[in-house]
Write a structure and sequence with these properties.
Layout (H helix, E strand, L loop, with lengths): L1 E5 L6 E6 L6 E6 L9 H12 L2 E7 L1 H4 L8 H17 L7 E6 L1 H9 L7 E5 L14 H5 L5 E6 L13 E6 L9 H15 L6
Parallel strand pairs: 3-4, 3-5, 5-6, 6-7, 7-8
Antiparallel strand pairs: 1-2, 2-4
Helix pairs in contact: 1-6, 3-4
Protein name: KANL3/Tex30 alpha/beta hydrolase-like domain-containing protein
InterPro entries: AB_hydrolase_fold, KANL3/Tex30_Abhydrolase, NSL3/Tex30
Pfam family, one: Abhydrolase_11
Amino acid sequence: MTRARIETPHGPACAELHCAEEGTAGLLLGHGAGGGVGAPDLVAATRAAQQVGVHVALVEQPYRVAGRKAPAPAKQLDTAWLAVAEELSATWFDGLPLVFGGRSSGARVACRTAASGQAAAVLCLAFPVHPPGKPEKTRQPELDGVEVPTLVVQGERDPFGRPEGGPHHEIVLLPGDHSLKADLDGLSRAVAEWLARVLRPYAA
């Protein structure tokens, strides 16, 4: 495993590289608001991606690197993420298509930055459609705004809601809640199958 410290306009971020044997694409995965890159669903998605020939970079946002627990504002998260993506696309993933992804808050960042970062696809784990108990504060437009193939893996009992389907995104519902820990095998299968399918046009 290789780690890199990457400068962003909001302080250094950290990226952790997990290589596939023969990588045909790069997947950037971001963490949730209060968690780190060691979350079980991120680990499962990383292993699934490696199995289908996708290199993975687990990205730690600057506020986490600095030791802060409270997440930075959305614009800062997005700006830092794009800086990391630009750096990695020129180094670790040079010449490879990039997939943006993450869990919870990280999934929102991936959706908001997909167009600017020229992502080939987006992977959302536990997309937080709304704050618990507040369905009127919907973030569905962030998901609907993505115009590349998108997979949302969601727990059936997620208190953050269940996203609606759309022309560019498909939804896989698994047993469990926002953590997605109840069916990590199901998550791995869904991620591996989807990545292999959407990245097929980029294969040599």
